[in-house]
Amino acid sequence: MNLLRTKSVQQLVSESEEQQTKLKRALSAFDLTALGIGGIIGTGIFVLTGIGASNFAGPALVISFIIAGLASGLAALSYAEFAAMIPVAGSAYTYGYAALGEIFAWVIGWDLLLEYGLASSTVAVGWSGYLVNLLSAIGVNLPAWATNAPGAGGIIDLPAILIVGLIVSLLTVGVKESKWVNNIIVVVKLAVILLFIAVGTSHVTPANWHPYMPFGWGGVMTGASIIFFAYLGFDAVSTAAEEAKKPQRDLPIGLMASLGISTVLYILVTMILTGMVNYTKLNTSAPVSFALNYIGMHWAAALLSVGAIAGITSVLLVDLFAQTRILYAMSRDGLLPPVFSSVHQKFKTPHVSTRLVGLVVAAMAGFTPIKDLAEMANIGTLFAFVIVSAAVIVLRKTKPEQRRPFRVPLVPWLPLLAIVACLYLMYSLPLLTWIRFVVWLAVGLIIYWRYGSRHSLLQKGENGRLSGDKTMGTDPQKGGRGAAR
């Protein structure tokens, strides 16, 4: 059994065109950019800015976002090269299969399933927090037991479960319908973010930026590692490669444009937020609306809460979309049961994968505190970026002749810089997060050993060729090399 067997680019592309499992190409460059913004801008701005500033970095969270953005930008270059070269569903999983081998593809695919599941759950909990605040502002107070996880003062987070169910229903209907919903939501949330910037700028008190780095440089780096998963949305753009109309041109545009726009907005919002309210008061699940209420701008806070709910909804839509496509890709390769790559006859979506993902994410969102979810999602994101950056270096050496519509400059130095930056951020995460991550990977390796390695279509193909060669060589009656001699 060859654990390092790889798939050629041509093989990956041809498999994606098989009619039984073919997805519908419906996304333009604008749609892909909106998909990226929809996935990046949301929980990072509307939820994690408060947690990151109050617990880890203080006003220096701005630096945390810059560091996370730079590390993401370096990784995004590698993603862009692969996405244009291999316009196939699966993102880092598929890239690992092409460059590093099946065992690495499995590990990164298994990691991505955890990463997107936890990210989706985190986003759903953040959505619930904004909904509760908005309803409270109009006099409707939901009971704490029904709006918080057991570790956060409640029994179950019902609003989080509800929104996951609604998004799963939308994704099951089709990618075309989902993209229009996402595009509309992106416009709404960009409008409310610009409103916050316009209103908040005149209420900034520079004294709130002192001390600027209350937790030291270590706090800044921990803050960067905690908020890092906010940048996961650009990875979701690459998972949509198989549904892009002109993937070689549009995918790099969607990746880089969405990341650049989102990073600028993150920096501006964080700077204004920590200038409006002292960082010690921002430990809340709805820090942006809290800041507006704090300065007496209640109408703006209510409007922003509506926009935040819409914005976080689009993040959840993108994250769930990405996770279902990775599960679909792994199943199509035989590493997971074939039911997960079945495509709905009418909607042309992986409906079984979508519903399964929805059930798991709803369960995690309903019963797990947001802090634990965010930490685990971050380590998975960083690990994925390390693998993709390494894969670019390897494939440049092993397949230099391969056509690359987009090329990362200064290889291997820029990918190596991305690897170092991501590993350092992983190092900054708590030990418990590492332990959980290692346990998850260990479980994944057991599943691969018991199921994936035995059902891999690539493995079966190699065994078939070897068996065929052996038969031809030993039975002259059937022709082949033995008969020729």
UniProtKB/TrEMBL annotation:
Segments crossing the lipid bilayer: 32-53, 60-80, 92-113, 125-146, 152-173, 180-200, 212-234, 255-279, 299-322, 352-370, 376-395, 407-427, 433-451
GO MF annotation list: amino acid transmembrane transporter activity
Keywords: Membrane, Transmembrane, Transmembrane helix, Transport
Major localisation: membrane
GO cellular component: membrane
Topology in the lipid bilayer: Multi-pass membrane protein
InterPro entries in UniProt: AA/rel_permease1 (IPR002293)
Compartments where found: Membrane
Name of this chain's protein: Amino acid/polyamine transporter I
Gene source species: Acididesulfobacillus acetoxydans
Lineage start: Bacteria, Bacillati, Bacillota, Clostridia, Eubacteriales
